Amino acid sequence: MLLQNLPGYAGEETARPAAGGDLGAPATRMPRWACTLILAVHDVFFSLVAFLAGCHAVGYGWPVREGVPEHLLLFFLALSPLFFFAGRRLYSRHLVAAAGFHVRAMGAALFAAAMTAGVALFMHLWPRYIAAEWIAPVVGAAALILYLIHRKAGFDGLIWLKILGLACIFVGASGLIGNGPEPMLIALAAPWAAGLAIAVPLLIAGRLLLVQKVMFGILRRYFRLQTIVVGLDEDARQITSRIVSGNAPLWVVGAVSVGARKTLDAAAVVKPYLGGLKEIESVVERWGVQEAVISDEAIDKAELIRLLDFFTERGISAWFFPKLMPVIQMKLVGDELCGIPMVRLECGKQRVFFRFLKPVVERALALVAFLAVLPLFLLIAAAIKLTSAGPVFYRARAVGKDGRFFTLYKFRTMLANAGSDLHKQFVTRLIRGEIGREANGGVLKIVDDPRVTRVGRLLRRSSLDELPQLINVIKGEMSLVGPRPCLPYEYELYKDWHKKRTLVLPGITGLWQVTGRSEVSFEDMILLDLYYIYNGSLLLEINILIETVFVIFRKKGAY
Fold first, then answer.
1. CA angle 92, 98, 103 (to 5 degrees)
2. Domain-located, residue 495
3. 128, burial (CB in 10 Å: exposed 0-12, middle 13-18, buried 19+)
């Protein structure tokens, strides 16, 4: 069928527009946050109902004890399953629209809540079995073993750290509040367990009814997001058909072409042709676009980055097929839309965390880390001084956020007065794509550099040469996590879309460093940095920091 250019047509999802359909009328839509708010209210309400029912089932009254602190602890115990909902992506409308994923994710979150209860209760009881001085080592070793096992098996190891952390909070709060013959958490063990048992069927059934039957069924028209498809190829046809047949919470208003082609066999649906890429801004404004799916592989990288930047700057989530950026598919866990593997970009740099909280938290952490490793600083400085002539620190003029220059600090790893011509030549060829992995033993970095000292080689292999960058973080010139800082002669070789990586502060570690480091091509490094900028979140920051530790111990990509 043809993508018909029908003025005012919002895209009726049938082969022929039905009587009384959307033809000639804008699609009804709610704000993006409305879905999350409704789900959160549902979860809080039914969690409290389940806890109250649990108290009643075991013969416990409500409230159990008087006083505001006691009430707060009871409230948080009742809501313990919800602490795991966001981590299991149970507020992502495109994922919970699939009933199978919804049930599995709910089960995983509720299992984590049950594990939290078990760990918290055990922590109250272990003094009977474990000497006090052994408690901290045993807990730490258990947490590390669980994390390593699940990380090796490909599961989310962070969930175990979250379970342990939440259990410690509950135990600590119980100890501060309780003043009876037994800890308050022990007194609440029976109603807590009963409440969790009731919450499992109640939350799952309530969620499925609310999401699958009401929000994305009967009232789907009000909860779908206005979506455009960029491309007129087979992938565009496939994703459009999947959105319609799967009752996805999206409403495809039409398609935008990359080239001159203006037709598409859209299978069971007819969607209008909205224009070419030149008209993208007017299309977005006219139709109130909230989501965009990019499918056409004919689009080049520069144009793709321009599109992604355009969408995310306007708060529009951008989806694209992994084949457009293969490195994302190879190095990261992707997303999916209607069962099709996709990459999703959101505007991370606009979030409150990145604007205000991240700089403050990272500077505080950097100061603590600097004081903690100060003895190691002195030891490394002495080793450098005793084994080679020259200063302890290497200072370089680097390019920071928005192209501003700053002084980058590292431990000196080369002979004093070593020239930079060799590095300039290598970087120039690397950025221009003249060096491939096969030409350098699979490594995109200078190896066996004669300018590097013996101590310097050890520092590079262990990444300890970058420790002085903590000073840059404390000064506000860098962050703990971010794109790798570049030198001025590298920046001069960048294409316009390469320079997008300087939208945020450079970091000591980053997504590129933990996913390939010196084994990733220059353009793939840029794409990974841009993925981090667009999709940055607190969880991603924590994952990168933890993964950095394992990368350092494996010495992956360090030369």
1. 90
2. yes
3. exposed
Q: Domain check: are 311 and 400 in the same one?
A: no
Same domain flag for 275 and 197: no
Tell me the three state secondary structure of residue 486.
strand
How many domains does one find in the chain? 3
E strands, 212-276, in order: 225-230, 250-257, 273-276
Residue-number span of the structural domain to which 499 is assigned: 352-554
Write phi, then psi, for 204 (nearest 5 degrees): -65, -50
SS3 180: coil
For residue 200, being part of any structural domain is answered with: yes
Shared-domain flag, residues 234 and 333:
yes
Q: Are residues 370 and 231 both part of a single domain?
A: no
* Token reading at 118: 């078990």
User: CA-CA distances (angstroms) from residue 470 to 6, 353, 480, 482, 553?
Assistant: 58, 20, 8, 13, 19
Structure tokens at 308: 């992604």
Establish if 27 belongs to a structural domain.
Answer: no
What pLDDT is recorded for position 6? Answer: 34
Contacts of 21 (CB under 8 A, 6+ apart): 12, 14
pLDDT tens digits, residue range 9-47? 334 444 333 333 333 334 556 777 888 899 999 999 999
The pLDDT, as a whole number, for residue 39 is 95
5-14, 389-398, 523-532, 534-543: the lowest-pLDDT one: 5-14
User: CB burial class (10 A; 0-12, 13-18, 19+) of residue 447?
Assistant: exposed
Query: Same domain, yes or no, for 312 and 445?
Result: no
Per-residue buried b or exposed e for 344-382, using 16+ beta carbons within 10 Å of the residue's own CB? bbbbbbeeeebeeebeeebbeebeebbeeeeeebeebbe
Query: Are residues 61 and 80 both part of a single domain?
Result: yes
pTM for this predicted structure: 0.73
